[in-house]
Amino acid sequence: MKKRFDFTKTMIKEAGAFLLSHKSERVNITAKSVNDYVTEADKKCENLIVSEIKKAFPQDGFYCEESGTIDSSSGYTWVIDPIDGTVNYMNTFPLYTISIALKKDDEIVMGCVYVPEYDELFSALKGSGAYLNDERISQSSFTDMKKSLAILVPPHRMHDELPYYMTRYEKILKAVSDIRGLGSAAISLCYVACGRCSIYYELGLHLYDFAAGAIILQEAGGKIKISPREGEMYDITSSCSQFFDKLLELTE
């Protein structure tokens, strides 16, 4: 597993360099569904990542945003989002990431999230802590939720969920200092992991959106509730550990 972790930390930066050098392809856009887009760069970046992993670990499987699922004969499965925050990427907003997690059987054991525009690599190996560019990170030390910053993301692809969501949005807003929306689940979880924010709440995500960020957050001491819904989608409720019980009350 350590070999795969070290490999990923090198390879994900190569994929980031690819995205930085292929920005012209952000304008080649296809709509997959309502408010869900893919660029030519998404596809090429995923192909690059999968190709490199196949060379190094040919028995491993894949669960990818663009190319789907390939079964594993080794017990390891790579969970890949080549651009988490495609709308950010399309619009030249710098908070997009490459998100790569590794499952051993049914457990997430490793995660790497790379932010190419800022050369920030968040990473975690199960049981070994969480890191930002090789420096150990930890969750916020705030004890007063009223002073904290929350990341809240409206269900822009599921407008029928707006009434449900907005009730909880209002409760959280009243309990914190201010809110943000970053456009990437992976970076949102990492920002809670390193203490830049204290709360992240979003509905209707896929595994590849949050898998890497989830283990990074947990290894940094944070907590996360992953609630399954239909269509292999999930709701995410996460925060630093000291606010988690209160956040669960606010989102009931």
Molecular structure report:
By secondary structure, the protein is an alpha+beta fold. It is 34% helix and 33% strand. Helix 1 (2-21) runs antiparallel to helix 2 and helix 5 runs parallel beside helix 6 (207-219). The model has no long low-confidence stretch (mean pLDDT 92).
Question: How is this fold's topology laid out?
Answer:
Layout: H1 2-21, E1 29-33, E2 36-39, H2 40-56, E3 61-64, E4 68-70, E5 76-84, H3 86-90, E6 97-104, E7 107-115, E8 120-125, E9 130-132, E10 135-137, E11 149-153, H4 162-175, E12 178-180, H5 185-193, E13 199-205, H6 207-219, E14 223-229, E15 233-239, H7 244-250
Parallel strand pairs: 3-5, 11-12, 11-13
Antiparallel strand pairs: 1-2, 3-4, 5-6, 6-7, 7-8, 8-9, 9-10, 13-15, 14-15
Helix pairs in contact: 1-2, 5-6
Top keywords for this entry?
single chain; 8-stranded mixed beta sheet; 5-stranded mixed beta sheet; 252 residues; 34% helix; alpha+beta
In a few lines, what is going on in this structure?
It contains seven helices and 15 strands.
Tally the helices: what do you get?
7
Mean pLDDT: 92
Strand order of the largest sheet: 4-3-5-6-7-8-9-10
> Which regions contain 5 or more consecutive residues with pLDDT less than 50?
none
Structural class: alpha+beta
Q: Mind summarizing the main beta sheet?
A: 8 strands, mixed
